[in-house]
Specification:
alpha+beta; 8 helices; 12-stranded mixed sheet
């Protein structure tokens, strides 16, 4: 492993984490690269390259941020999947595993291949002729004040019914903890192969989540009476104000490779995070539930960057 590609959170300060990686790379004589647009955010020793070459030239990717950054790293390498190590700078990540203080040891384990790979599927989508991928979900979302998304559902060419809702979310097992979960969809084990379609705030038509086989081909087609629709891929707007057309979706296995250093610990963390999401408390209210000594220690910690 000679070269590592850095994928940076678009807005958060990554200086400290990049510094840790740069010092480690210098000691181990490894090269670092970053997309040219981010060269002002990294030391001069990090090579700027065209955005579409970072994943192809690197032996592994280091995602610095939260789940959104991690998803971007996975999408960038979908044509030639590379191991992606996630470093946590977000607020509530389900994909990232490593905290900044753990990074030097994590990089050494990456170098010595002392890790396991967690394979992730994606949704390969044809949006009115444009080919895109999503590792979490694709969503058809109504524009505020413009009515409802009205779309028909076909599976393997057979019409199944229609949706009339604020949004229609199609997710992978990984994405089942994201938008689909917020809309009332089920949690799908990451070890399962399945596609979930969940309507958000349905007014008519199909009103429950539908779980489909990965072999089934999905088609969502806007009806003539649908409001203008925003198409989101992994939470990012791909198409704005669409009023006609269809989205064809298929499931692609082994499209992303996530580095896992301690799978059991990672799973336990995510179980705790999911439990916290179901508690009707604000973060400051949760702190009040801690024992006094632990709460006092937590209050003395410096605020996160």
């Amino acid at each position: 492993m000679s070269g590592l590609g850095l994928v940076l959170h678009p807005t958060r300060d990554v200086t400290e984490v990049v510094g840790i990686i740069e010092r480690w790379a210098t000691r181990h004589r490894k090269s670092l690269m970053v997309r040219a647009e981010d060269k002002h955010r990294v030391p001069a020793s990090v090579e700027p390259v065209p955005a579409d070459e970072v994943a192809s030239r690197a032996d592994a990717l280091i995602s610095i941020g939260g789940d959104g950054t991690m998803l971007g790293a996975l999408r960038s390498a979908v044509l030639d999947p590379k191991p992606v190590l996630g470093v946590h700078l977000g607020r509530l990540g389900f994909l990232v595993e490593v905290e900044p203080p753990e990074l030097p040891d994590a990089l050494s384990r990456l170098l010595s291949k002392d890790f396991t790979i967690e394979s992730h599927a994606c949704l390969a989508c044809d949006v009115c002729g444009d080919n895109v991928v999503a590792f979490n979900d694709i969503a058809l979302v109504r524009q505020p004040g413009s009515g409802f998304v009205t779309a028909t559902l076909a599976v393997d060419g057979q019409q199944y019914g229609y949706y009339r809702a604020d949004a229609v979310v199609v997710s992978t097992p990984t994405g089942s903890t994201a938008y689909s979960y917020a809309a009332g969809g089920p949690l799908i084990s990451p070890a399962a192969d399945a596609v979930v379609i969940t309507p958000s705030a349905p007014m008519a038509g199909i009103s429950r989540s539908v779980v489909l086989s990965p072999e089934e081909k999905i088609r969502l087609e806007l009806e003539a009476n649908s409001s203008a629709v925003v198409v989101e891929m992994d939470g990012r707007v791909f198409r704005d104000a669409a009023t006609e057309g269809a989205v064809d979706i298929s499931y692609r296995r082994n499209a992303g490779l996530v580095v896992r250093l301690d799978p059991l610990r990672y799973q336990e963390r995510n179980q705790l995070k999911l439990g916290l999401l179901d508690l009707p408390f604000l973060p400051e209210q949760l702190r009040e539930l801690l024992p006094h000594d632990l709460r006092k220690t937590q209050e003395e910690l410096p605020p996160p960057c």
